[in-house]
Amino acid sequence: MTGKPFTNVFSVSDGPVNNSTGVPYFFFTTLDVTVQDLMVNPNATLSMSEVQSGYCASKNWDPQDPRCAKIVLSGKVVTVPEGETDFARESMFSRHPVMREWQFSHKFHFAKMEVEDVLMLDFFGGTKIVSAEDYFKANP
């Protein structure tokens, strides 16, 4: 699929429970084709929807309904620096406990997105551009 758009599904965490930072952390294996692509070109876009929380279903909203909020983060995916590894580990394993079992196989490592651009859709009328500065000021 060289030269064609590509997408994949990954577990993500922006910090341990009750300590959200807004920084998306990942637990990647270099055996994954997406990770191999990111090693060549670290630019990526991450889309998340409020549908994952169950809120939209409770309102009987389809995932495509604009009231079912969506956020699109764009930036560079980089390996987590050594001084941040413990935080990344706690962030991922506290929200995805089964990943603890993966850490000693298949060349897994922690990565994060350095968020540069943010788009948000939370109501009718189209997406809104949110500055990275305002995004990181938000209180979850």
Query: Unreliable segments (pLDDT under 50, ≥5 consecutive)?
Result: none
Q: How many individual β-strands?
A: 5
Reported for the largest beta sheet, the result is: 5 strands, antiparallel
Straight-line N-to-C gap: 38 Å
Strand residues, percent: 25-35%
Number of H/I helices? 4
Task: Indicate the radius of gyration in whole angstroms.
Answer: 16 Å
Structural class: alpha+beta
Kindly report the oligomeric state of this protein.
Answer: single chain
State the share of residues found in helices, binned by percent: 10-25%
Secondary-structure element string: EHEHEHEEH
Q: Describe the global form.
A: globular
Overall average pLDDT: 92
Write a brief caption for the model:
This protein is of the alpha+beta class. The chain has helices at 33-40, 55-58, 85-95, 132-137, and strands spanning 25-29, 43-49, 70-79, 108-121, 128-130.
Description:
The chain is α+β, with helices and mostly antiparallel strands and 140 residues long. 21% of the residues lie in helices and 28% in strands. The protein has helices spanning 33-40, 55-58, 85-95, 132-137; strands spanning 25-29, 43-49, 70-79, 108-121, 128-130. Strand 4 (108-121) and strand 5 (128-130) form a beta hairpin. It is globular. The mean pLDDT is 92.
Properties at a glance:
140 residues, alpha+beta, five-stranded antiparallel beta sheet, 4 helices, 21% helix
List the helices and strands and how they pair.
Blueprint: E1 25-29, H1 33-40, E2 43-49, H2 55-58, E3 70-79, H3 85-95, E4 108-121, E5 128-130, H4 132-137
Antiparallel strand pairs: 1-4, 2-3, 3-4, 4-5
